[in-house]
Design a protein that fits this description.
This protein has about 375 residues and is mainly alpha-helical. It has 2 domains: about 100 residues, Orthogonal Bundle (DNA polymerase, domain 1); about 200 residues, Orthogonal Bundle (hpI Integrase, Chain A), CATH 1.10.443. The protein has 15 helices and 3 strands. The protein has a 3-stranded antiparallel sheet with strand order 1-2-3.
């Protein structure tokens, strides 16, 4: 039932009931606000994960402020964002994401159609205001906001990473330790993430059925294409699916060994996940992060080389090897070529070779004697 005032049934929440006193009005009204906002976002067709995340972000601000929405101020918001940047060292994009959630919640509360302003005035003698404005909102002024330390692996670094991962599997197996299976799984995931330019969630959520044949690449057999079902989504939308074609034969060998020889050892009957865990149907993201970080640190590589750097490397190496930029863009699922270019970290050697080739072509054109057609303007 909705509350009914002079202006009719306006209060968005279905929790508040007309004429029934609330035992704990402050927290109950707050929960009703969040419920109403969730319903509004659902009506806007936002993805459930987006809704849950935004509600979580608003709750986090409320807990830090120690106040209810009708007591929030821009100063409280400023203090929280300062804490996120200075104490928790959150990235700019993370802070902006929090601000988007809080701004949206305050906009909802201030919309006359939902009458929360009047409801709060009646119950608490005050009302919510917008605490994110043009003065304290984080601007998105840079095309890319990743830290300068983030980069692609060089081919030498990448080979060292693969070799080290294989050595850990062999060492555990010689010692008779059961952990060799998990180490083998993680080594395979690292290689496959690079071989197909996948993000962490994209590779984690793969199932056995997501690998298939490519009619135009029969030489790759059962692993000619990967169907990514959990690609990165646009803000508020569902995951974006795409297919990624196999380009390197060695990836087929890696996948074949995993699926034919090692994965069955996990006891995966009835489990569709491509990468099972001993304790759960599917390996967790924290396991993937920890494994790669430990290998990277053991090799003395910088912290800027994270799991996403495998994807950067994929784009970079395909471009260096002469693959068409449009093909690379489709492979990694970018809507715009400019996004793909951000991921490209071509080596200085590649740029030097490219410059040398162009200069040599120019020099050859200058030194080459003109043909009769050139001297006659191309006329017969």
């Amino acid at each position: 039932m909705k509350s009914r005032g002079d202006a009719g049934p306006q209060v968005a929440s279905l929790v508040l009931v007309e004429g029934v006193p609330l035992l704990h009005p402050e927290p109950q009204v707050y929960e009703a606000m969040l419920e109403g906002w969730s319903n509004q976002m659902m009506a806007r067709n936002l993805a459930p994960a987006t809704i849950q995340n935004r509600v979580r972000q608003v709750r986090a601000f409320g807990e830090h402020a120690g106040a209810f929405p009708w007591e929030w101020s821009a100063q409280l918001a400023d203090e929280w964002f300062a804490d996120l940047r200075a104490i928790r060292h959150c990235s700019r994009s993370t802070v902006r994401g929090y601000q988007v959630a809080i701004r949206g919640f305050c906009d909802y509360l201030g919309d006359p159609a939902y009458a929360w302003t009047a409801e709060c005035e009646r119950r608490f003698g005050t009302h919510p205001i917008q605490v994110i404005n043009e003065v304290n909102a984080a601007a998105h002024v840079a095309e890319v906001e990743s830290q300068p330390t983030k980069r692609a692996y060089t081919r030498v670094e990448l080979q060292a990473l693969f070799d080290y991962a294989d050595e850990q599997v062999a060492a555990k197996r010689r010692q008779g330790r059961k952990g060799w299976m998990s180490a083998f799984r993680d080594a395979t995931m690292i290689k496959v993430a690079y071989a197909y330019g996948l993000r962490r969630k994209e590779i984690r959520m793969l199932d056995v059925a997501d690998f298939g044949r490519n009619p135009d690449g029969a030489e790759f057999g059962e692993y000619g294409v990967i169907y990514v079902r959990y690609g990165k989504s646009q803000r508020g939308s569902e995951p974006k699916p795409r297919s990624v074609l196999t380009v390197w034969p060695w990836a087929v060998e890696v996948l074949g060994q995993w699926f034919d020889e090692v994965r069955p050892v996990f006891g995966t009957d009835g489990n569709a996940a491509a990468w099972p865990s001993e304790r759960a149907p599917r390996v967790g993201l924290e396991v993937i992060n920890h494994r790669l970080a430990s290998y990277r640190d053991a090799l003395g590589l910088g912290p800027g080389l994270d799991f996403h750097s495998l994807r950067r490397s994929y784009v970079t190496h395909l471009i260096e090897d002469g693959w068409d930029p449009r093909f690379v863009q489709e492979q990694v699922g970018h809507n715009h070529a400019s996004t793909t270019s951000i991921y490209t970290h071509v080596s200085s050697d590649f740029r030097t070779r490219t410059l040398r080739r162009v200069l040599d072509d120019m020099l050859a054109g200058v030194l080459e004697p003109p043909t009769p057609d050139d001297t006659m303007g191309g006329l017969a």
